[in-house]
Amino acid sequence: MKHFTRIADLGPEGVQRILATAAAWKQNPPGALFANRILGMVFFNPSLRTRASFEAAMLRHGGHAIVLEVGAGTWKLEDRDGAVMDGDRAEHVREGVPVLGRYADALAVRTFSHGDGDDVDELDPVIHAFRRFSTVPVLSMESAREHPHQGLADLLTIQETHGTTKVPVTLTWAPHMKPLPKAVPNSFLLTAAACGAEIRVAAPKGYELAPEVRAEAEAYAAATGGKIVYTDDQAAALEGSAAVYAKAWGPSTTSGLPAAPMKELGAWMPTAAHMAKAATEAVFLHCLPVRRNLEVHDSVLDGPWSRVVDEAENRFHVQRATIHSLLNG
């Protein structure tokens, strides 16, 4: 059975296939793709764009979505093998997941990192449990390691803007009130590499992405003619870039290097002055939600570079393509 919870499930050829389908259907919408089909959506964490776009994809094409919020209307789910279930998790995924598979044609899961470190995020325990026990295809709506549909929407937006994905792009760290998961930057890096982009990853020392993610991205870049450079020089990374992707993420727990105090990193917040270093035709991307004037300055989000709303719309287009691919694969 095929699942799509990580870019590795598609590989570079699969990424190109989904982007081509999404672009074609954006111009000529398909008909009742999902007639008599049900998508079960399981949310361990909140959502705005993800929930709305997945539901819209099903409903606009003749299908239906069942939305379940874990711990709010459903039992809390236990995913650990051998757990003594004497806490607040009343149902185990070993029973809960296959039961849902009896009702739905596919399952979509959203589960954030618990902040236990890069090594645990690499294991991606909750999404992995759904893959193990589901009797129907599983899609990721974000997990501890990746947010693959966001990465696809990001690259579709770049492709629409520049006519190709093989352009210089910058993934830059941005400040925040607290450490955030790495799923979004991981997926942008992996998807851009799978698309043959020249990627500059800019982050302060101590905020490196996990080595397993970097190794996977390097393999994709080698296969697609892409290139990846890592630097703590944000200005150099922005120079001549065709797309700037800013995202906050937490410090590395595998590098052994100390992370810089957040209060000392305010200068990393993208402003109009930062965007002036990029190429004339550069666009700015962010997955949303974004904390204005903390993570990204108003001058960028309200400026001519911003494509964040177009990018959010593209979630809908790539998701109906991946759902269709799994249901008919």
TrEMBL record:
InterPro entries the UniProt entry points to: Asp/Orn_carbamoyltranf_P-bd (IPR006132), Asp/Orn_carbamoylTrfase (IPR006130), Asp/Orn_carbamoylTrfase_sf (IPR036901), Asp_carbamoyltransf_Asp/Orn-bd (IPR006131)
SUPFAM superfamilies in UniProt: Aspartate/ornithine carbamoyltransferase (SSF53671)
Domain of life: Bacteria
Keyword Transferase: yes
Boundaries of every Aspartate/ornithine carbamoyltransferase carbamoyl-P binding domain copy: 2-160
Domain Aspartate/ornithine carbamoyltransferase Asp/Orn-binding: start-end pairs: 184-323
UniProt keyword annotation of Transferase present: yes
Keywords assigned: Transferase
Family as reported in the entry's similarity comment: Belongs to the aspartate/ornithine carbamoyltransferase superfamily.
Protein name: Acetylornithine carbamoyltransferase
Protein's organism: Geothrix rubra
Lineage: Bacteria, Pseudomonadati, Acidobacteriota, Holophagae, Holophagales
